[in-house]
Amino acid sequence: MRWWKKRRAGTGNRCELCYAKLTPSAEPPRRGRVYVSDGSDVKQRYVNRMCCDTCWQRGVELEAEAEARFRRANPVDEVCTALRDGDVSVRRDAAHTLERLRDPRAVDPLFDALGREDVRRGAGAAHAMIEALAAIGGSEVGERLLGLLHNEAYWTERYVGIGDEPPMVTAVDCVNPALFTVGGSELMLRGLLDVLGHQEQMLRWYAARELANITYRSTVGYGLTVNGSHGELVDADRQLIVGPLRSALRDKFWLVRESAATALGHLGDRSVLDDLLACLADDHHHRVRYFAAKALGDLGDASAVEPLRRALSSDVEISVAVKEALAKLVTRS
């Protein structure tokens, strides 16, 4: 039979690395990144379907060997020296290497290097350094990462607009996931709440706006951070932030009050109903009243219907938000 007429014989369930036939098992198939050796070098290979136990265990042994080689080839002191290089790509590669090494001796050099980076212009190297610090972890790293949130430069927006990335990003978009990695959602939220009480009104607004974004992402299932991961808010998280957000409704800066009202609406905690009604009736800035009305619609408490109807007849500036809120409440009832 001609070779082009031959039909491929079914191979059945076979290991993708050694092609040994696998016996049916109740255990889930082994798949993922596996270290393999070609005789002269150790490399990673991705197993899409399944791998036999022998190849998998061999991969574990080769991984240890590869890591040992990597550490010998990249002494921490030499890699940390590269953090001072004038080329941003060299600094970024050094940070990625330190992320893999996870050596606590690199903590101080990484923070020193972060202090030299201009995150307003571009945060490629800075992001890599923050990710390296998150990989190293520890309470000291967590506390020092919290300090970055008090630096206004880390909140400066830069236009990116590449692929699926958000068009405007900040260095905080990397700091928050790092804080989550080091200390979970509690550490990340604690850092934002500390900034929410800062004496600088712009920093307070940045923190309130980020909390509004976090509560929204958690509500719609996008995850707590910009990269769409790190779970969702749990009850302990909600209890942690609802009090400070309620206090922020009385902040002197109207942008803080606006973001706080938005965040409370996303939380859906009906204990803040009276606070939002007070904003709707008494706040002197129409944007705060506008978002208080939207938040009342998100809360879904029918007792807000009459105050919203009064606002509809007396406050023309927020009529659109009031109508939307009433429509939500009527639909739910």
What is the compact description of this entry?
This protein has 333 residues and is mostly helical. 59% of the residues lie in helices and 7% in strands. Among the domains are: 11-73, no CATH class; 268-333, Alpha Horseshoe (Leucine-rich Repeat Variant), CATH 1.25.10.
Structural overview:
With 333 residues, this protein is mainly α. Among the domains are: 11-73, no CATH class; 268-333, Leucine-rich Repeat Variant (Alpha Horseshoe). It has helices spanning 53-73, 76-81, 88-101, 107-116, 124-136, 139-148, 172-196, 201-220, 235-248, 254-267, 273-282, 286-299, 305-314, 319-332, and strands at residues 30-37, 42-51, 158-159, 168-169. The strands form two sheets. It has a two-stranded antiparallel sheet with strand order 1-2. A two-stranded antiparallel ribbon has the order 3-4. A hairpin with an 8-residue loop joins strand 3 and strand 4 (168-169). It is globular and about 80 Å long. The termini are far apart. Residues 3-11 have low confidence and may be disordered.
